[in-house]
Amino acid sequence: MGQFKTDQLVDRLEAAAKARRATIARLRARPAANDPAVLARQAARWAIVQAREVRANEREAARLAAEAQREAEALAAREREAAEAVRLAAERVEQQAALAVEQKAARDARFAARKAKVKARR
């Protein structure tokens, strides 16, 4: 079998230094905050954020409008049901009144017939 390859301290220190140098080089290579390319990217991101907010506001407005429409329809349905209930109650009262008048007329006719029968006997 071969021997295990072990890193020496110097090799590890060199690798760490090389990594630090690479990181510093990347940071130095970054464009400045006032670079036109950076500003253009920021403006594009800002436009995307604004458009996203506008769409969210439009969705919220549409949701609220739909909810208001549903509430209005529900209210109208309840009002129609209430009006129908009132109409049915009025019809029922009218029918009961008509029935009471018919019953009274029948009762009066029976009473008059009995009275006439008694008068006819005398």
Give structural notes.
- It contains two helices and no strands.
- The mean pLDDT is 91.
- It has helices at residues 9-29, 36-121.
- With 122 residues, it is mostly helical.
- The longest helix has 86 residues, at 36-121.
- Helix content is 88%, strand content 0%.
- The chain has one domain (34-121).
Which whole number gives the mean pLDDT? 91
Q: For the CA atoms, what is the radius of gyration?
A: 48 Å
Spans of at least 5 consecutive residues whose pLDDT stays below 50 are none
| Helix coverage percent | over 70%
Structural class: mainly alpha
Layout of SSEs?
Elements: H1 9-29, H2 36-121
Question: Could you name the key traits of this structure?
Answer:
single chain, 122 residues, mainly alpha, 2 helices, rod-shaped
